[in-house]
């Protein structure tokens, strides 16, 4: 429990109407979870404005509210509810971040926090950093799409980046459990909605940016600006590490106050990597002139590992300690995860759900597979999301595969038939014969395995680590890896 006076410590731009000694039991952005003694923050929303629920939370007995200073109901609310202290500001999410930092005893300042942003590679880079630093005997926290972790303890992850109160709460738990480092994904939504307010980042990493999330950002330029805003906020004491192989990599560094560094495979940069050998079992890499073997596969993973190495180097860990630990890192769950089946058929499960990610995975397989080995790809697209990428992903699948099976991913509230129809519209006429449409995902995977000959490769893309399908708002258990293991036993 904190007083408003304690919450306002080291803050600016927040005006208080009421007693600064009022006690606050907890912070909330959800009116349904705001009860007696809470401070409720009226967050701007994409669908509903949090100011709409101020009367409701006042009736529930909150001690204080945080509102936008331009809210036209401010004076009337103050007159009707004199018992509720009012904090007003020009940016509610930003102010809430600073209040949360104070509420949780500024715990985040005790952590070395590195944020990773980009369309693809965020989860891999963060997970690899967590595993690397854990192997080097640091106590670490992880905030990712797949899971949140506090040392060995695994916590459920509902969003790539939690809301700002949940994030600072998580930092406090990490510090209480002895963590010194935290590696976290920073989604474009989180940057745009300022869910990372008052997070004292020690560094930021940019992996790449490609077509995605235009259902939210509307334009690619807005998507780039959301990613860039993360780097614009970094302090001078932090580092900003960007992928120079991506044409927008330099954009991320344009206005940052942070120390600037680059990594690349195909151009000059501060940190370089080269693939010496590769097959489905792994790669021999040369990083900064030093060779190492890794079980990870693909140019995109070579780039991810380089970002991990560079981050560790910039956090003052010498390469003599980093390289052996880097070589021992396992593959990331649901990221180019190979399952060896009967008849020497190899199934590869990958989270690829954007055109660029799918292209990278298919290109990697095609670079490795030998003459006479066929690639059968199972691909779907999510419902209630960016429709523009559907035909592009379908085109990539048929052009890069010997056969492509279009199926359901997470259709959510959309008709899966309509989603597959959108995909099929992108298939060039000369590749029609390569395309199959199988609505049921399990049947689609079964079809791909039945099409495979001994030695062939089956790619199952789009869900990776996910263990569910969302159909008409209902989640059903579905794990691509479990389905593959089951079908391998049944069919062969």
Topology:
Layout: E1 2-3, H1 4-7, E2 15-17, E3 23-24, E4 26-28, E5 38-41, H2 54-60, E6 64-68, H3 74-80, E7 85-89, H4 92-103, E8 112-117, H5 122-135, E9 140-143, E10 148-150, E11 153-155, H6 164-176, E12 181-185, H7 188-192, E13 201-206, H8 214-217, H9 220-232, E14 239-243, H10 249-252, E15 259-264, E16 271-279, E17 282-287, E18 290-294, H11 299-314, H12 319-327, E19 337-340, E20 346-350, H13 355-368, E21 375-381, H14 389-400, E22 403-408, H15 416-424, E23 435-437, H16 441-451, E24 457-461, E25 468-471, E26 474-477, H17 480-491
Parallel strand pairs: 4-5, 5-6, 6-7, 8-12, 8-13, 9-12, 13-14, 14-15, 15-16, 20-24, 21-22, 21-24, 22-23
Antiparallel strand pairs: 1-3, 2-7, 9-10, 10-11, 16-17, 17-18, 19-20, 25-26
Helix pairs in contact: 4-6, 5-11, 11-12, 13-14, 14-15, 16-17
Model description:
With 492 residues, this protein is α/β, with parallel strands linked by helices. It folds into 3 domains: 2-102, Udp-n-acetylmuramoylalanyl-d-glutamate--2,6- Diaminopimelate Ligase, Chain: A, domain 1, CATH 3.40.1390.10; 105-327, UDP-N-acetylmuramoyl-L-alanine:D-glutamate ligase; 337-491, Protein-Tyrosine Phosphatase, Chain A (Alpha-Beta Complex). Helix content is 34%, strand content 24%. The protein contains 17 helices and 26 strands. An 11-stranded mixed sheet has the order 11-10-9-12-8-13-14-15-16-17-18, sandwiched between helices. Strands 19-20-24-21-22-23 form a 6-stranded mixed sheet, with helices on both faces. The longest helix has 16 residues, at 299-314. The protein starts with a strand and ends with a helix. 50% of the residues are buried. The model has no long low-confidence stretch (mean pLDDT 94).
């Amino acid at each position: 429990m904190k007083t408003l006076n304690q919450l306002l410590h080291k803050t600016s731009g927040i005006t208080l109407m009421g007693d600064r000694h009022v006690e606050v039991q907890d912070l909330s952005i959800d009116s349904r979870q705001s009860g007696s003694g809470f401070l409720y923050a009226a967050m701007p929303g994409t669908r509903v404005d949090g100011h709409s629920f101020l009367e409701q939370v006042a009736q529930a007995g909150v001690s204080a509210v945080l509102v936008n200073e331009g809210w036209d109901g401010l004076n009337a609310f103050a007159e009707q509810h004199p018992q509720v202290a009012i904090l007003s500001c020009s940016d509610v999410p930003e102010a809430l971040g600073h209040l949360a930092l104070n509420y949780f005893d500024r715990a985040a300042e005790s952590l070395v926090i590195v944020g990773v942003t980009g369309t693809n590679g965020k989860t891999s880079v963060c997970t690899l950093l967590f595993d690397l630093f854990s192997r080097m005997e640091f106590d670490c926290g992880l905030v990712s799409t797949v899971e949140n972790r506090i040392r060995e303890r695994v916590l459920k992850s509902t969003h790539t980046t939690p809301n700002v109160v949940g994030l600072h709460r998580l930092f406090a738990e990490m510090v209480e459990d002895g963590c010194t480092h935290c590696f976290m994904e920073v989604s474009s939504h989180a940057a745009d909605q300022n869910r990372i307010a008052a997070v004292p980042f020690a560094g930021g990493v940019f992996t790449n940016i490609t077509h995605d999330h235009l259902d939210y950002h509307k334009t690619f330029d807005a998507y780039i600006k959301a990613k860039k805003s993360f780097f614009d906020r970094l302090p001078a004491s932090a580092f900003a590490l960007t992928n120079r192989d991506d044409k927008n990599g330099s954009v991320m560094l344009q206005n940052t106050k942070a120390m600037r560094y680059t990594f690349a495979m195909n151009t000059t940069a501060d940190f370089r990597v080269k693939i010496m050998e590769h097959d489905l079992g792994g790669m021999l890499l040369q990083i900064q002139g030093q060779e190492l073997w890794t079980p990870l596969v693909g140019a995109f993973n070579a780039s991810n590992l380089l970002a991990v190495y560079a981050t560790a180097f910039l956090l003052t860990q010498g390469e003599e300690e980093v390289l052996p630990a880097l070589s021992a890192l396992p593959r990331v769950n649901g990221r180019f995860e190979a399952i060896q089946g009967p008849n020497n058929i190899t199934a590869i499960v990958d989270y690829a759900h954007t055109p660029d990610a799918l292209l990278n995975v298919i290109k990697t397989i095609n670079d490795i597979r030998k003459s006479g080995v066929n690639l059968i790809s199972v691909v779907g697209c999510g419902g209630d999301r960016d429709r523009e990428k559907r035909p592009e992903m379908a085109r990539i699948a048929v052009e890069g595969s010997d056969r492509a099976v279009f199926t359901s991913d997470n259709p959510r509230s959309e008709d899966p038939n309509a989603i597959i129809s959108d995909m099929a519209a992108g298939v060039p006429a000369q590749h029609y014969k390569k395309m199959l449409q199988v609505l049921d995902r399990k049947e689609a995977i079964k079809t791909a395995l039945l099409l495979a000959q001994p030695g062939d490769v089956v790619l199952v893309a789009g869900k990776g680590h996910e263990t569910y399908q969302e159909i008409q708002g209902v989640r059903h258990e579905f794990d691509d890896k479990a389905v593959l293991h089951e079908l391998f036993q049944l069919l062969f």
